[in-house]
Amino acid sequence: MTDQPDFLNLAITIHTKLKPLEILEQTQAIENQLGRVRKEKWGARLIDIDLIFYGNEIIDEPNLKVPHPLMQERDFALIPLAEIAPNFVHPVLEKTILELRELLERTHRTH
Length: 111
Hints:
Blueprint: H1 20-33, E1 59-61, E2 64-66, H2 75-84, H3 97-110
Antiparallel strand pairs: 1-2
Helix pairs in contact: 2-3
């Protein structure tokens, strides 16, 4: 990742009737309303809303990959996810969020 200012990070669970691409459209509209400008990949931003999971579905669209393909490599995603859904099983990796977090911690300790 590039150097960027500190940011707040959180995870939420929602129940919705929206389809995944509709959620993407809505979250990008929120980001745009709040002034997000997409200049560089992984650059600093005012807001970043990611759809990490959509139940147990696996989605592979050009503009949407669910589960989020890098979430297991990001402690800033795994830490808040572990707080709200530690036993949720990743539908591709077949490990719980807590197991993924512990795996990442072990990887960081050995490097």
